[in-house]
Amino acid sequence: MRIDQPDEDGGRADDADTPDTPDTPDANEARAPDRERAVPAAAAGEHEAYRAIVDAVFRAHAIDQACYPEDRYTEGVHADCGRLANAGFEHIDRRNLWAGEEYKGVNSRWRVPESEQLFEVQFHTQASLDAKEETHGAYEQIRSLPDDDAEVSRLHAYQREVTAKVPTPPGTPGIPDYP
After folding, report:
1. Are 94 and 108 in contact (CB under 8 A)?
2. How far apart are CA 90 and CA 112, in angstroms?
3. Is residue 142 part of a domain?
4. What is the pTM of this model?
5. Domain of 40?
6. I need a labelling partner for 12 at 20 to 30 A (CA). Which of 32, 39, 124, 140 fits?
């Protein structure tokens, strides 16, 4: 799982939902012990409140890791969405992007009710996170170029080539978009 702050227009800051489930022992076991948390870098002092929110979310709700094993991915997404909802965060949207050709994962946005602060949670396997990180430069270039630029086609092809190697975890079609 990766948490990012949405950009100024409410979109994803970095690159790109399931019924919420209670925090049960089975759901807790779906989370992998070897996941790491990933928090975006920000200019000193620029996002202090945001970083405090992210840290509080991770600490208070035991969401301190970044990747799920493929065989427990779907259960992990359901469990962590349930944890966030049960903690009082407002679920804004979720996009299941596993069927896509250029990005694999589930991205969701949440709101902290007290402050209206938005944050994004990305759910990944190690392979999908590695592909996302490998193609991130291409993604940023695509965003900065006009659609008709010849380089855009090459960058899209590169993203498809890398992403085609990412295995799709079982059960991902059952993770619905939200709303």
Report:
1. yes
2. 7
3. no
4. 0.71
5. 2-125
6. 32
